[in-house]
Every structure is written in C-alpha cells, then in structure tokens.
Amino acid sequence: MKTEVYLVRHGETLFNRLNKVQGWCDTPLTIKGIDDLKKTADALSQIHFDNMYSSDLKRAIDTVHLMKDANQVSKIGKIKKLPEFREVFYGSFEGGSIDDIWLGVSKAAGIPATTDVKKIIDTIGIYKFREVTKKADPLHLAESTEELETRMCRAIKVLRKETSGEGRVLLVSHGDFIKTLGIKYWKENDGLHDITFPDNGSVSQGILDEEGNFEIVDYNCKAEDL
C-alpha cells in the first residue's frame, strides 16, 4: 500500500536563534519554537496517523512528542528514531557562525566573498555547493553530495521498510535534509535547482509507494495552510 508521509521540520532552536551552524550538533527548542510548534500540532490534531517517527536528534524528538501529545485521533506507541533522517553534517563548521561558514565557502568556490548562501548556490550550483563546503571545512568532514545522496536514498529505503502496512505517518526531520529531499523528489522541481529552505514547524507531504518510490507533493506548508 502507498504511505502518506507528513514531513515536519523541528521547531526553532537556540542555535537557530543565534545564527549558528547546527547539523549533527544539537540545541534545545526555544520558547518561540515550542509556541510555533503548538500551532502546527493543533493543525494536525484531527489527522489520523498510523505511526510517528523522528530523527534521533533531540530537537526532532522533542518536536515529534509535541505532535503526538496534541493529536486527538491517533493511538501512537513508542516513537521510533531514524538516524538516517538526521540533519546534513557540517563537519568542523558545527557550532560556528553561519556567516563565517558561507564566507569560507564562497572563498573556497573562488567567487566574491558573501554571507548570502542563496547567492553562492545560484553561482556554483546546488551540487557543487556541497563539494565546496566539504573543501572549505578544515577537516573535510562535512557531507559531500555523494555522501548525502547515499544517506538520503538509504533513508527512503528504511522508511519504506518501517512503514510497511501504514497508510499515513508523521516524520520529524531537519531543514537542510528536508530541502535536499525536496530538490530530488518534489514534483515541482527538476532536481537541478535550489528551492526555498523550509520554515521551522512547516509540513511537507510525500507519497511512498509499494516499490519504495518517493514523491513530495506539497512542500513547506505553514500551520495556517494545512
């Protein structure tokens, strides 16, 4: 059977608020983040889910429990954590200033220095952007295009296995990872161009078919649009 997947981005965190790089490192949800998530949870409270999942990072786990506690029509047991849906890894840039990482990436790309990540991506392309980020990382630990693609494909396979027999599920993941899924799987994108970064607490909807094919049919929806 086909499975509807509601992809939720976690709420605002301390590092989001401080404009710091947050991939595999983790910081708590802010009060604003929790308040915004309550709006998303309320918008989804009357939608039945057969199960709920999350990345294994705490900001995602805290988010999925807010969704679970607010839902009035689902009987969800223990939340299963799927590490494949972690955020993109930024290596030694983790915890640093977001402006500093993009200055370093623009320098490594050989383009005029900028803190505007959209300008960098528009100039060098979304796939080269990952390679240049890895190059700019002093320890070269940041995920490359190939590494991220491999993990993303593994994530879809794991999700298909976990959700077998489930008609609708909710999954909490992260901004850059959801965006990367959108670039590849959103039906309104050609897979080659950048798309809008999803908002904290936003919902993207996908369909996972019996063969494991995945398509995103709605992307970055705010609570009031659900």
Automatic annotation (TrEMBL):
Q: Which UniProt keywords apply?
A: Hydrolase
Query: Which residues does the entry assign to the active site, renumbered to this chain?
Result: 10 (tele-phosphohistidine intermediate), 87 (proton donor/acceptor)
Q: Which InterPro entries match?
A: His_Pase_superF_clade-1, His_PPase_superfam, PG/BPGM_mutase_AS, Phosphoglycerate_Mutase
The Swiss-Prot or TrEMBL record annotates one GO molecular function as: fructose-2,6-bisphosphate 2-phosphatase activity
Residues reported in the UniProt entry to bind substrate: 9-16, 59, 87-90
- Top-level lineage group: Bacteria
| Class of the enzyme per the UniProt entry, highest EC level | hydrolase
One cellular component GO annotation, for this chain's record?
cytosol
Name of one Pfam family that matches: His_Phos_1
Which EC number(s) are documented for this chain?
3.1.3.46
Biological processes per GO annotation: negative regulation of glycolytic process; regulation of pentose-phosphate shunt
Please state what the protein is called: Putative fructose-2,6-bisphosphatase
Q: Which organism is it from?
A: Lactobacillus delbrueckii subsp. bulgaricus (strain ATCC 11842 / DSM 20081 / BCRC 10696 / JCM 1002 / NBRC 13953 / NCIMB 11778 / NCTC 12712 / WDCM 00102 / Lb 14)
